[in-house]
Design brief:
Length: 292
Amino acid sequence: MPRGLVVVTAERGALGKSTNARLFTVPVEPLDIDVDKLTQAQDNRELYGYAMRGFIQHVAGLWDRCVKELPKDVKKLRAANSKDKLHAKDKLHGKLSDAVAKLGCGFNLFLSYAHHVGVLSHEEVGKMTQDARNALRCLARDQQDHVSASDPALQFMQTLVALLRQEKVQIQAKGVAVKSLGGPIGEQGQTDAERIGWHDDNDLHLLQTAYNVVTRYFRAEGREFPIDELTLRRELERGGYAVSSKTSRKRDPHEKGKQKRVFTLLSEPFWRVAGEMGITKQDIGASKCDRG
């Protein structure tokens, strides 16, 4: 099946990590548009069909070369883009690397046509090639940051940290109440926060209510959490936030050892996410929880 480039406009971005990885977003602000140039372009709209016909004829004349060389060019650019970490938290998603490579090769092909018909000089082609490469890389890095931010596992972790910081939820310590995370403990062990689990030195054992609390938080902000609980557990494991072998039934130390189904988060990635949000252990730890 032949593939083409679909261009759409939208007021809001897409939801979900996978969806955003398949998009290549170009943000356009009101002041980005030169109204005079736009008007001139609209006045000449009848010429674009002729320009496209000429470009297609040019590509047809290079078809054998394109079939042989373009896949190699795309592969080379994709490999380079996949290693690009400049100004991005993570290396580019594979689909973004592929998009940048194909868009770059397509633009280079158009520049060869513009040079062929005498619209651009050799020097102008070289400059526009570099400008396009820089622009595509910049847009791809911004899109990668958006892809990372739309990761549902990371969103869950960030929301959990925020709820603890706001003392709306509590993760009790195993045996030592003053080290609980989140809302403060009262004299009789009571708290205004909603208890969502317990923790020890290495892990945070979350009850199923933790997922419900996070989804309620999203709905209160007019959003929907993108995935269900079972999928979230898999994403947490895949992201290194939880270990599948530790997702099981455990004895709740605060309810006379009653067996509870929990999913277990590792402490190290939990505190790393908190640190990236500018939140320390003292912000949601013992110093906030020893008040009667």
